[in-house]
């Protein structure tokens, strides 16, 4: 169903239309495009929220987690995809490429994840997934408008006002995206640091692998596999947790799976 939604690209068409409205200062085209996008977004949000609410499954899997960390890199992908979508839309010979562009930017999955967050009453999940959608939206609108200008669909003196406004919106959206990118860099540094360490816990030597960091509202969490030379006692487990927290430099929940080196 998700791949089908990506292939059909139900939101890509109205977003490109909105971009053309921005370009030509055509208020009716802008309003109709925005209205269609809003209806589509609300429909996906409510559907996903209802499914999440009534199905007794509340587990964050890798597909959901992958849409909860939007960064400035996602904006670059959206901009390139928006330019490609505008070019494909204007050229009948390569119109079939529009589905591939839609898959690249993936508009429906982040809204679906936001809807699941809504159903679970998880504000962080909702806001991060919806930020990814907004990133894709503004990136496509700006890039498609610029591409339409290059292709000669509107003179620059008419287009510049709308493009300027949306560039300002892109800059506002870029603030949390850059912050998220900086956090991602810190997480990678923590993962690299922990994977290179060998802890001496009592009589045992311990290494950490498959390290993942999750940012929660109250307290962040680290999940990893612990490879040890023997079974750790309760006190040794507490000591290992203390050493992990000291290596990270902040209080954090630690969840581990133990594996033993023979």
Number of strands: 4
Largest sheet: 4 strands, mixed
| N-to-C SSE string, H for helix and E for strand | HHHHHHHHHEEEHE
Helix content: 55-70%
Shape: elongated
Question: What report would you give on this structure?
Answer:
This protein is of the alpha+beta class and 262 residues long. The protein has ten helices and four strands, in the order H-H-H-H-H-H-H-H-H-E-E-E-H-E. A four-stranded mixed β-sheet has the order 1-2-3-4. A hairpin with a 2-residue loop joins strand 1 and strand 2. Helix 2 (12-24) packs antiparallel against helix 3 (27-54), helix 5 (72-90) packs across helix 9 and helix 7 runs antiparallel to helix 8 (123-150). The protein is elongated and about 75 Å long. The protein starts with a helix and ends with a strand.
